[in-house]
């Protein structure tokens, strides 16, 4: 068997501080650095981040082997400091290890948030939020003023998801406004995507560097803000009577705290409640917003396609700009063999969907936006086709897929059915900035501002 060996050095970070700056900064640009490295070194790379071995897979075949054939052996998550902090010591779904707690929580949230029955009962919320969106854009269309689509789409998506999960309408909230919520989502995502030295260097050294560099206090400040917000939402639930027929996830979980469940060894605690709320906060909102912004950006740059937008809308945008370019990291639970390489137990695994989406062996003109390429194929986004994995695949794939797709479809249809879109005065298609930024999610760096006009 071929021995896995280190084929590449870590790329230098963008700051002038070669050691202190690198790891923290690298988190922000990891997908791009890894894409470049994989073009040079091939689709299987072993990186040594400090003392931790991380294997990065950048091919469709490898993704299939990990996520389908070896799904079970790789479906736990590594314990990273920032994720632990934000999820109340891994009491959530996304970052917790594989096991009974994960299974029970996933079942509960599946039933109380994602089930078709729940979604149906919450239809009116999606309709109200859509009306609000169309009204807001119509005002801009009448006054011929541009809208910051990032802010508008965040407000729409967060409006729906927080009302579904938290029972809270942040448009009418007296303790926090939508702009602050957006800042907090971005800050929390940045923190969870940043790589801490504590994760990769032996205890003591990493701990010290994170303290000297300010990373530790940055994470804790961000966490305190998030924690205060979640506690505020919970306190409001405790104060107010909840309607019996329309219990949101927070109400249901509050009612279950410390009560016996069917499982002998699992009990819901208040940390589980906050952990799941963190998940919704971190995973639920921004991925959808980012998908829509990139969709609108590409469509604006390609007026021909904007005109032709049709049912393939679902598969189209997530290839070039997968909202989560490395999915979430996996960890091997036993020794396995992937692509002919021996991968030992406890190796961190990253599936580089960013590189797979741009792989010239799979896609003709990979960097081009050609949505028609999906017309005569059976490729879908649901995790069965390993060249397109916007929601991941296997046991740890996204449980919010159906909800995410409904929101994106509803929103894009509203944007494109009622309005035509033009660039602000003085701007041309060439001026649209395509720079990416982000860590677990890759957002567009420069906000997309467009002027809606009413379609007669
Ligand atoms: C367009 C919208 C969305 C996209 C593109 C998206 C994408 C993803 C991806 C790529 C993963 C990692 C999968 C893996 O590691 O294999 C994930 C996991 C997850 N997502 Fe989503 N997501 C979206 C919407 C949502 C929503 C609306 C929610 C909840 C309200 C949600 C909750 C989660 C959770 C809890 C996980 C962790 C699952 C686990 O580890 O078992 N997502 N998502």
UniProtKB/TrEMBL annotation:
Its cofactor is heme. GO terms for molecular function: heme binding; iron ion binding; monooxygenase activity; oxidoreductase activity, acting on paired donors, with incorporation or reduction of molecular oxygen. The keyword Transferase does not apply. Pfam families: p450. Its main location: membrane. It is a single-pass membrane protein. InterPro entries: Cyt_P450, Cyt_P450_CS, Cyt_P450_E_grp-I, Cyt_P450_sf, Cytochrome_P450_71. It is found in: Membrane. Keywords: Heme, Iron, Membrane, Metal-binding, Monooxygenase, Oxidoreductase, Signal, Transmembrane, Transmembrane helix. The keyword Metal-binding applies. One of its GO terms (cellular component) is membrane. Heme binds at residue 398. CDD domains: CYP71-like (cd11072). Belongs to the cytochrome P450 family. This is Cytochrome P450.
């Amino acid at each position: 068997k071929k021995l896995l060996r280190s084929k590449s050095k870590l790329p230098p970070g963008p700051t002038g501080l070669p050691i202190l700056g690198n790891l923290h900064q690298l988190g922000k640009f990891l997908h791009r650095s890894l894409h470049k490295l994989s073009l040079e070194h091939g689709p299987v790379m072993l990186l040594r981040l400090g003392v931790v071995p991380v294997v990065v897979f950048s091919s469709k075949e490898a993704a299939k082997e990990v996520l389908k054939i070896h799904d079970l052996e790789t479906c736990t998550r590594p314990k990273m400091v920032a994720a632990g902090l934000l999820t109340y010591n891994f009491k959530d779904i996304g970052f917790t290890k594989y096991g009974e707690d994960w299974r029970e929580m996933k079942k509960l949230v599946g039933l109380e948030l994602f089930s078709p029955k729940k979604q149906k009962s919450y239809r009116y919320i999606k309709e109200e939020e859509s009306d609000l969106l169309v009204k807001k854009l119509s005002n801009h269309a009448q006054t011929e003023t541009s809208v910051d689509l990032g802010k508008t789409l965040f407000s729409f998506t967060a409006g729906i998801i927080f009302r579904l999960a938290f029972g809270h309408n942040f448009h009418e909230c007296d303790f926090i406004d939508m702009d602050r919520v957006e800042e907090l989502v971005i800050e929390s995502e940045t923190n969870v995507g940043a790589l801490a030295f504590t994760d990769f260097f032996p205890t003591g050294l990493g701990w010290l560097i994170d303290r000297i560099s300010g990373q530790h206090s940055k994470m804790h400040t961000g966490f305190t803000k998030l924690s205060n917000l979640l506690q505020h939402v919970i306190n409001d639930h405790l104060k107010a009577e909840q309607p019996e027929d329309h219990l949101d996830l927070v109400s249901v979980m509050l009612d279950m705290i410390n009560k016996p469940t069917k499982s002998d060894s699992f009990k819901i605690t208040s940390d589980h409640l906050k952990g799941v709320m963190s998940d919704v906060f971190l995973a639920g909102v921004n991925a959808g917003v980012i998908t829509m912004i990139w969709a609108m950006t590409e469509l604006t740059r390609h007026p021909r396609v904007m005109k032709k937008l049709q049912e393939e809308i679902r598969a189209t945008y997530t290839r070039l700009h997968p909202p989560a370019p490395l999915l979430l990291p996996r960890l091997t639970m036993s020794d396995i063999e992937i692509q002919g390489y021996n991968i030992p137990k406890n190796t961190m695994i990253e599936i580089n969907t960013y590189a797979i989406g741009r792989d010239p062996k799979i896609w003709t003109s990979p960097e081009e936006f050609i949505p028609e390429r999906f017309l005569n194929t059976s490729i879908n986004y649901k995790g069965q086709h390993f060249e397109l994995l916007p929601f991941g695949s296997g046991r740890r794939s996204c449980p919010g897929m159906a909800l995410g797709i409904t929101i994106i479809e509803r929103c894009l249809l509203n944007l494109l059915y009622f309005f035509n879109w033009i660039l602000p005065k003085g701007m041309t298609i060439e001026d649209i900035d395509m720079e990416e930024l982000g860590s677990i999610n890759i957002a567009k760096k420069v906000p997309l501002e467009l002027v809606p006009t009413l379609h007669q």
